[in-house]
Specification:
Elements: E1 31-32, E2 35-36, H1 89-92, H2 108-132, E3 136-137, E4 140-147, H3 158-174, E5 178-183, E6 186-192, H4 196-201, E7 205-209, E8 215-216, H5 222-225, E9 244-249, E10 269-273, H6 286-297, E11 302-307, H7 311-323, E12 328-331, E13 333-334, H8 346-351, E14 361-364, E15 372-376, E16 395-399, E17 404-410, E18 422-428, E19 434-438, E20 451-457, E21 462-472, E22 478-483, E23 506-513, E24 537-541, E25 543-545, E26 549-553, H9 556-574, H10 581-589
Parallel strand pairs: 9-11, 9-12, 10-11, 12-14, 14-23, 23-24
Antiparallel strand pairs: 1-2, 3-4, 4-6, 4-7, 5-6, 8-13, 15-22, 16-21, 17-20, 17-22, 18-19, 18-21, 25-26
Length: about 600
Amino acid sequence: MPFTNHHPWRGTVLAAIVSIIALGTTSNVFSAGAAPLGVAQAGAVTELGEPAPTVPPQRRIRPPRPIFRHIRNLRGTQVEEIPGAVMNVQASSALSPSGTRAHPKLDAALDGLFRAFNAGGSEAAAAYARSQRLQWRGGRVLARIDTGWPTREGRLEEASSRLLVDNLLVGLDEAGARVRRTWGPYIEAMIPMAAFEALLANSTVRGVRKPWRAVPSARSEGVAFIGADSWEGVLFRSPAGGLRVGVIDSGFEGYRDLLGRDLPPEDRVHTNSFVEDDDIENDEVHGTAVSEIVYDIVPEVDLYLSNIETSGDLNSAITWMIENEVHVINMSLGFFAAGPGNGTGPIIDMVERAPRQNIPFVTSAGNQADRHWIGRFKDADGDGFNDFAPGDESNAFRASTGEEIDIFMSWDFNDYLSSSQDFDLLLLDSSGRIIAQSRARQQGFVGDWASEDISVLAPRNDTYHIVIQRISASLPETLQLHTFFSGLQFVEPEMSLTIPADGREVIAAGALYQGNGRPEFFSSRGPTKDGRIKPDFGAPDGVSTETYGPVGFFGTSAAAPHTAGAIALLVGRLGLTNPMQTIEMLIARARGVPPDGRDNISGWGRLSVLPQ
């Protein structure tokens, strides 16, 4: 997820986290089918072979907001000379994973929260939560519970999964949790820390993890760029009930000030917030600028605006828009490490509900081409650390004090949901000290996601090093890194799409600068992990909006609403009853982007609504 205007946490990063210790017992409030849940007693041993923790509720902390980042500086494959960039990890630090591996049902961030509390109580846990930017309110932490019975093929039995989810919902309610969303075998809830012990002991709970979070990819010049102005004066054939476009985004701050001017009048703008505090503005202007572009292209439109933070919110927003029979949905947001990138996974399943209802779903390809790396694991000296280049076992970058550092790693794209290939992600400073680490276990069980992530604030101005450590891997593996900042020492633009831009039925938009029609250097590229060409179209960015100012809206976040607007324009002007018909029309009307032909930068070519 790309950011500026950060809302950084204040406070310091927890310096050290000790092993889990037993502090008592927890009441059993969960059930799994007919059998009651076994409760870990004081002195009981977890699957780690360590004493089981008990953790009381914590104080309220407001989470940060994902913010759009304007991207300016071109980066090459070998970016630039970074002081102290080359690092031989083995020579600089002892990085044994012994004693630091996460509980097999927890990701690294929630596992660290346990350890922090047991080491230093509420104050230490609060500092740790700030450093990890966990959503923590009223003594509860936001987490995603993965449940369901696995079959031999590693898939979930849907009927039994529904029963398990229902049983867990009862237990969560009795434990004082507040359930936010449920879909399939997943539950998102604000969970009291005291309930975690019983939750982890439940044999039907496959994992408790941070939710997947959506992030922005961040009279418009794009109207003329795509030829929309040529339709002015053509009879508008409004579908029954009006032409409706859904916009899913992170927030719509200031939208009320633009009603009847840069947005439709109030009676044609409908809102529904799915974030924690039901705030449609959410201290975030990104969605307002996106909506302006749609309105510029189709002034007759009714807008349905919905803001989200997590994948569960996304599922609810799509349901709301399907119920309101919108004609196209735009989402200028993306997810990282939330699927294998081959057109499958939970996020893809959610968004492709829309095209199955004849509602095109448009998303931004991502702004990751200059902040992404992918490559085969190499270890010439056999020390267990990846060689990004001969003699260099880290991918270095510079960061300033308090700067947000977010890193996502994924691999095993053919067996992503139940990987037995175990890798860890480490962040070191210039002296080789560990600043943060993600050491979830991948043992081949359903729910052992092939992913690790780090979210931390830079403790000082320094050169930092991303390190990949192999723990147990029997197969050659290709690994992928996504970050939110430019300046990586090693960059690979290919396969840098965010999720769900890899979806087979999703329309993904790459960015072309409206001033010259050339692809933006940062615009994420295909192919998908299964070799399909993506994105689908190139559309304009660098456009003017009231929100971002003259020629101020850059990124695939701007390209996507031009694409959604083009679909709405054709539906309204041609009187189409099935909006999915517009996709073939846009393919036929696309202009070639040099080099001519379909490619993994601009797909079918430059978006156009003009006949060839």
